[in-house]
Model the fold of this input.
Amino acid sequence: MDYVNFLDFIKNRRTIRRFKPDPIPDDYVEKIIEAARWAPSGFNMQPWEFVVIKDKTLRDSIVQWVREYHKLTLKAESTREPWQRVPHLPSKDPEMDYRIAPVFILVLGDTRTLKGLPISMRYDAERRQSIYISSLAGAYLYMSLAATTLGLANEWVSSVAVAYAHCMTKDLLGIPPELEIYDMMALGYPAYNLTSRKLMRDKEKMIHHDYCGVDDFRTDTEVDDFIKRARIWTTANHRRGVDKNIVGVSEGI
Done:
């Protein structure tokens, strides 16, 4: 793949939050995980494990725990600084969200691999954790890219890693204490075409060369302005409706 095609590919990789319930081939899941295990990792410790969840009862339990957590986050959002608050509006078609994705993939981190890092990193708590998380993030990104090549939608369901959902999910699935949930991918066929342009920062304002002074970076006002625009864009994307031409549903939805 040349650079032009590569750049076009990653520009079109987007998080899709509306799914069809149609099953996906087992070999697609295997291909996605095969890509992930080739991701770079600190000192090649490869700290990842993957749990593929297809059983609906298990998936529904995880969804319920995440929803319970989200109820609390809505209350917490009311304390956000007024200038960046975005009104909470319900999804246009909540029945098509990640809950009906036919496959969940949990990415786990094996904390026992941390002792394989160089001693100078092993006993530097901040650096050790940074390397560990970066390794898992790389594996997850490879999964997302691989899913895109297969025509699959995927959504990051990071809330499964918060303490409550994390503990409940580990207990449900019998995951050992030494392993932690890093993130979860909801995987399935997309229920809509993503045609909106992604909100992006100006490239020229984020690249710096050699010595950089305060004047070379964004002001507090510029950062706050982008935060407001990004929150509005992201909230709108979360509410996006399905493409009825894709899913074949009636206009009543």
Q: What stands out?
A: Residues 32 and 161 are 21 Å apart (CA to CA).
